[in-house]
Amino acid sequence: MRKLSKFNIFTLIFAAFFFIAPLLGAFGYALRGVNGAGHSLVNFRWIFQQQGFYTNLGVSLRLAAVTALLVMVLMVPTVVFLHLGGKRWRRLIEFVCLVPIVVPVVSLAIGAQISMPKWLQSTPYELCFFYVIVSMPYVYRAVDIGLQSISLSTLVEASQSLGASGLTTLRLVIVPAIRSAVTGALFISIALSLGEYALASLLHFNTFPTWVTNVSQENILGSIALSVSTLIGAWVVLLLIVFLPKIRSLRKVSVNV
Amino acid sequence: MTTQIQTEEVLTASNRRQNLFSGFKFPKTFLGLLPILSFAGIFLVWPLSAIFRASLHDNHNHITFAVYRELFTGIYREAFITSFKLAFLSALIAGFCGAAVSAALVRTSGTFRSLISSASGVLANTGGVPLAFMFIAAYGQDGLITKFLLWLHWDIYAGSFDIFNFWGILFVYGFFQIPLMVIIFTPAMENMKKEWAEANDSLGGSHFQYLRYVAIPTLIPAFLSATLLLFASSFSAYATARAMTIGNLPLVPLVIGTLVDGNVIPSEANLGDALAMGMVAVSVVVIAAYLALLRFSKRRS
Amino acid sequence: MRKQFVFGVVAAIAVAILPTVSAQTASADTNWATCGDITACGGMDALVAEAQKEGALNLTTILRNWADYGDALDSFKAAFGINIADDNPNGSSAYEINLIKTAPAATQPDVVDIGASHIVDTADSTGVSIFAPYKVQTWNDIPATWKDSTGLWFGNYSGQIVIGYNAKDKVAPKSFKDLLNPAFKHSVGIAGDPTGAQESLMTVLAASVANGGSLDNVTPGVNYFHKLKLAGNLSSAPATAASVVSGQTKAWTDWSFNAPGVAAQAAKAGTTLKYVFPSDAAVTGTPYIFGINKNAPHPASARLWVEFMMSEKKGLLAKDLDGQDPYNLQQGTEKGSTLFNSLMGGQNIFRLGGAAPILGSVMASHKLLVPAPNVILGTSGATAVPTIAQQLAAVAVLKTAWPKI
Q1: B132–C237 C-beta distance less than 8 A
Q2: B207-216, B232-241, B257-266: segment of lowest average pLDDT
Q3: Is CATH 1.10.3720.10 the classification given to domain A51-213+231-239?
Q4: C241 and chain A in contact, CB less than 8 A
């Protein structure tokens, strides 16, 4: 790994300022005490005292898990396939995967309302499918760029010559090779499912973000604390995804030793 | 010499590919595409076609293309132009800023890097009212940065500074655009092999030459495809724009909102649906331009 | 004598059976989805009983701070024990109508509260409405302009445009003219896009009236806001409770029925707000409209809700019922109608919230109105209400003129 140049350090410091300032500003309001005086954690404690916190959080976490699963099962094999043999179809699929991002959520919601069967519209898991659609452009692009940067056919051929099946190759060879791209794709789709409000409210479901808006109606400082906590919470969930496997593999190593 | 090596790699790879896929017949290709096509067919094409059909029906249930003619007139034309300008500038600026952050990120170590990339995942999905408030909390009249700059004797509110004019919105968009760029572009950055830079050094090339002849040509395809995504993302941004404007900036998603999800204008939902189809049409044009650019850049390198 | 005896016995038996027969007739015959007024629904007792059997009410786009809906929801729930589900509090009128037209049966709202301009969207091209006709007990008191002759929809409350400001402001604005004061540089806000938000539209119309225009001519209002922008006073940040607390918005316009709620909200965050009726423009918006969903999942609750919200009575609120359990209808000790008559009616609850209830003038003449909240300074006086046609004409102008300010 190369050392950080002066330009790199300057970039990171500038970025830090840009991103931390607004977060810090909102955090300052969230820390305000009762009747806006002083500082306290009362607004953060308020969140957990509200009815429906755990129920709705559970709904959003489940939606995020199903969305992540669908993304992995649907998108990764498809993009790998496109790189290996479906070259002719790449432009078409790329276009199909890019269209969702240009459709405003409002219009997608209305389209869903008038086309989806009623039984599907009665379960919040309908949202998972649309979350996959909405994150498809980012996921496709992330996995696509990741695959462009490795010599995919060499890896596949080597793996197959060692006797591995397609699925094993995918699981044990390709995915680890594009790990940062896949992780990035999962980050985007999970963070999206946890924080998506527009589609959930327009399709009249109760998820964590819609619950947050409901419950914040009469408490300004509480709602600010809630939005800050949601960001931090989502970050923690993503960090768990990154670090949990590492901790598990560390334990495995120590056990073997 | 680098190009020679690359050509060799390509030649043998394509031979290998032919051997690998001599067994692939048409049905198998189709099977490989079936999952994505059926998924997109049900959850994307079907709702879109429903919107298209709805856009053609006026209030008396007659089929008419009249709404589509309206898209090219007056305020709707302006909205498309302003949206395009905003999206284009946002993509360009966030593209370069994000690429710079990616370049710095690939040189950092594991834990710090995981922290930043997971933070990017979260930040890329911020928007709407919370984001607007965060920027008011930082750059508003009583904002953190405003007060800091005041301490440095710079009163940004001395003139007619308006936090949420066109440039202000561009600034705020960076908050989710740059992290998005970082997430998508970093894998490409990661594969800039150290050996290439070393080879350049050993051949006596300057850093500038490395950039011009090695780094930039290799990164251009990934950069273009990532910025295309940024363009589309800011073109269709709705909640954030809504929380930061009072109708002073005509943007297509906002206009659609007033027509299909508003409290004032009745009976023009079909125009809103037509505008949505217009956005899809714009994306087709932009993607075509991107593909042309891609081919052009590949030919040059 | 034998004849008299037999007649007596027959009469006694008839008296004994008759109530049960008629009660059976009421419950057997009442089609709760179509009964068109309280008599057809079998009387208030039957309505309350059936609503309690249904046990739930689906509402949508209701904000607790909006016209004191919070008290209305709480009272209804505490008195009748009916659970109210409020879907998407921040939703729009278009969303509500869309919900009725496309949502699965169980998720549909029972009653909607929409803006008057959207009434046209509630009937399709052949004239079939999404609403079920129902004439509340106070039907005759509703002004003819704001009700459908067959009972499909009717007005409920409206609001006047008022100016809100931070108590800490150096200048206390009293009129639209005052907002041009340099003390309000960067700080004057409106709720949102006038082509998307009803109160912003009425704000521009009010500004027009204040500047030599009228409800027919919105251009002076647009010019006023252009002047405001040139002066550097107009902020493009929408005026919300949060932007007010953060000090970004120091003066803004709002519905009179948002004033008490927002003031209370801001007080909890440490900011004191004041409101005033503008001295140069007295404009009240078109009323909001109730409609009962034809396919309401809980038709009896729906009808009970609109009866409650259109009731003119003075009486008890949820907090007055708190802790007491005298109204235990499950034990059959209290009649539904007695309970209903003891409650404060929705019209008065709207008034508590700062709204102008649609039955206001009738209630005033019968001395049924509760005092208005004292949050808003100044007097309201005679106000002008635009017609829907005037509203739509203003929107047509604003579509092209507003982005140019």
Answers
A1: yes
A2: B207-216
A3: yes
A4: yes
Q: Which domain holds residue B210?
A: 76-300
* b/e map A63-99, b = 16+ CB within 10 Å: bbebbbebbbebbbbbbbbbbbbbeebeeebbebbbb
Interface test with C, best of A204, A219, A223 (most C CBs within 10 A): A204
C:162-201 residues touching chain B, CB 8 A cutoff = 185-187, 189-198, 200-201
Q: Which ranges of chain C have pLDDT less than 70?
A: 1-29, 322-334
State the chains in contact with C (3 or more Cβ–Cβ pairs under 8 Å).
Answer: A, B
Shortest Cα distance, chain B CAs vs residue A235, angstroms:
6
Counted across chains A and C, CB pairs separated by less than 8 A come out at: 69
- Contact between A78 and A136 under an 8 Å Cβ cutoff? The reply is no
| Segments of chain B assigned E as strands | none
Option in C93, C190, C232 nearest B246 (CB): C190
- Residue of chain B whose alpha carbon sits nearest to that of A23: B134
Question: CA separation (Å) from B209 to A149, B97, C370?
Answer: 22, 21, 82
Given the DSSP bridges, would you call strands C251-255 and C161-166 parallel, antiparallel or unpaired? antiparallel
Best B246, B259, B275 member to test C by mutation, with max C CBs in 10 Å, is: B246
On whether residue B156 sits in a domain, the answer given is yes
Q: How far apart are CA C38 and CA C41, in angstroms?
A: 5
Q: Indicate the pairing of strand C111-115 with strand C131-132.
A: unpaired
**Strands C273-276, C376-377: parallel, antiparallel or unpaired by DSSP?**
parallel
Contacting residues for A145 by C-beta, under 8 A, at least 6 apart: A181, B184, B185, B187, B188, B222, B225, B226
User: Residue B65 falls within a domain, yes or no?
Assistant: no
What's this model's pTM, rounded to 2 decimal places? 0.87
Confidence at residue A253, expressed as pLDDT on a 0 to 100 scale: 56
Distance, in angstroms, between C99 CA and closest chain A CA?
8
* Sequence-separated (6 or more) residues with CB below 8 Å from residue B50: A111, A114, A115
- Specify the CATH number for the domain of residue B96: 1.10.3720.10
Domain parsing of chain A, residue ranges: 51-213+231-239
- Of A15, A100, A224, nearest to B133 by CB-CB distance is A224
CB contacts under 8 A, A 151-210 vs B, are 151, 153-154, 156-157, 160, 178, 180-181, 183-184, 187-188, 190-192, 195-198, 202
CA distance between the termini of chain A: 30
At residue B296, does pLDDT exceed 50? yes
Nearest C-alpha in B relative to A8: B104
List all chains that touch chain A, counting a touch as 3 or more CB pairs closer than 8 Å. B, C
pLDDT mean over A32-41: 79
Say yes or no to pLDDT of B89 above 80.
yes
ipTM of the complex: 0.86
Query: A185 with A139: CB under 8 angstroms?
Result: yes
Check if the beta carbon of residue A194 is closer than 8 Å to that of residue A64.
yes
Best mutation site among A10, A106, A189, A210 for testing chain B: the one with the most B CBs within 10 Å? A106
Task: Measure the CA–CA gap between B85 and A17, rounded to whole angstroms.
Answer: 26
Residue A151 to residues A180, B16, C270: CA-CA distances in angstroms? 16, 12, 61
Question: Does the residue B197 lie in any domain?
Answer: yes
Closest alpha carbon to C123 in C103, C89, C150: C150
What residue ranges define each of the domains in chain C, with the CATH number in brackets? Answer: 34-158+287-365 (3.40.190.10), 161-283+374-404 (3.40.190.10)
Q: Which residues of B touch A196 (CB under 8 A)?
A: 125
